[in-house]
Amino acid sequence: MPIFEDFPTCFACRSIDLEIVHNDDFGPMTACTQCGYSWIATFKDFTSEITITKAS
Predict the structure, then answer these.
(1) Does domain 1-56 sit in CATH 3.40.50?
(2) Could you tell me which of 8, 29, 51, 56 has the fewest CB atoms within 10 Å of its CB?
C-alpha cells in the first residue's frame, strides 16, 4: 500500500515550495516562493521541512 506524504501547499497555486518569513505586524508568516502569496503561519507549517528566512 503506498504512503502519501502530506506536505503543506500554497492556497493559491498548490506549490510545496514554501518558506517562513517574519512580518512586523503579523509575526511569522508562510510565503510561497512560486507565486508570492503569504498567510499567517500555523503549527503545521513550523513542523514541516521548510526553509526559514527573515524578510527585510
Answers:
(1) no
(2) 56
Rounded CA-CA distance 24/33 in Å is 19
Q: What is the pTM of this model?
A: 0.66
- The span from the CA of 14 to the CA of 36, in Å, is 12
Which residues, 6 or more positions from 2, have their beta carbon under 8 angstroms from its beta carbon?
none
Instruction: Supply 43's cell numbers.
Output: 503549527
The model's confidence at residue 12, banded by pLDDT at 50, 70 and 90, is very high
CB 49 within 8 A of CB 15: no
